[in-house]
Amino acid sequence: MRARLADETSCIRPKAEHRGGMSSESASPPPDAGSLYQAALTHLARYAATEAGLRGVLMRRVDRWARLQADPDAAEPAVAAARQAVEAVIGRLVQAGAVSDAAFAESRAKSLVHGGQSNRSIQARLIAKGVAPELARDASVNDADTELAAALVLVRKRRIGAYRLADGADATVRMKELGLLARAGFSRDIAERALNTSREDAEQRIFDLRR
Fold first, then answer.
1. Model confidence over 139-166: pLDDT tens digits?
2. How wide is the angle at C-alpha 84 spanned by C-alphas 22 and 59, nearest 5°?
3. Could you report the per-residue pLDDT of 68-103, keeping only the tens digit for each?
4. Of 13, 25, 77, 81, whose CB count within 10 A is highest?
């Protein structure tokens, strides 16, 4: 019986040790330039990113490793080195053209205007993604015709103006529709023009916008 128990114990011990080793991620090496660079490439292969956005992704990777360390003070030099490596990786990718805030802003602004976003809304969204305010302003400046077309995209989405389901609209409905467009960032002039545009004209403007 003792021999049998000894055999069973010998079989169980390696599993327990293996289980403990698998759960101890603190034993993994700290993020370095190589691993951070690969992590950045993996992220960029799936998502467009600004410098600030990519920095956040990589810094969170460093912070996760730091939180797993049993001795934060002992780990601090490695954490500091990893944070410096993040900046070096981003600089390398910017220099290679893999990360470009200008290209991101231009592409995202085009997508947003096609989705019915106003100049003001686009600028705010770009800044929230980490694009510099000046760059966001440059990317989000559209002429009046483009702004009107974007407003018409929203008009069609929300079934207002020429796309209203009910025939006619009293002053109350009109004010609600103007308020909807104003909250989306469109000026009163653009909102008025969008609501007064016929469905045929609206469809043509939206088609031209997305060509």
1. 987 799 999 999 999 999 999 999 998 7
2. 50
3. 999 999 999 999 999 999 999 999 999 999 999 999
4. 81
Structure tokens that stand for 202 in this block: 């609206």
Q: Is residue 172 one of the residues assigned to a domain?
A: yes
Amino acid at 21: G
Same domain, 208 and 161: yes
Query: 């207002």: which residue's tokens?
Result: 160
Residue with tokens 């809304």: 121
Amino acid symbol at 23: S
Torsion angle of C-alpha atoms 79, 82, 83, 88, degrees rounded to 10: 170
Tell me phi and psi for residue 152, to 5 degrees: -70, -30
Domain residues for the domain of 181 are: 143-211
CA–CA gap between residue 134 and residue 132 (Å, rounded): 6
* Together in a domain, 147 and 210: yes
The pTM assigned to this predicted structure is: 0.78
In sequence order, what DSSP letters do the residues of 46-93 get, joined into one string?
Answer: H----HHHHHHHHHHHHHHHHHT-S-HHHHHHHHHHHHHHHHHHHHHH
